[in-house]
Amino acid sequence: MRDLHSAFLPRNGEMTAGRPQGAFFNDTRFIAEWNLTINGRPIEALSVATPEPYRAKFVGRAASNGEMDSPLLIERERILGAGLTETITVRNYSRVIVFVAPRCV
Description:
3-stranded antiparallel sheet; 9 strands
C-alpha cells in the first residue's frame, strides 16, 4: 500500500466504527476502529496538536475511577505515511507506583 492519504479523528484520537472517522487511502477506509484504554478505562482528551499535516499529538489522562482524578497522563503521537504509526507514552504524576495495562482495539 502506498502512503495513506488522510485520517479523520476526533479530539481524543479515538476512531469509532459507524462514524465518519478512520484512516483512508483513496476512497477506501482501512482503519475504522482504534481505541486505547488504560486499565480498562477510556482516555479523557485534554489537548491535541497537529504540527504537520501528517502528524498529530493527543494528550489526555486515564479516566477517573470515581474516587480521584487519575495521575496518569497519556501522550499519543500519530504519524500518517506508509501506514499509521502510533507512539504511546504514559507518565505517572503521583508518588505511588501505578501498574498500567494499556489496550488498543
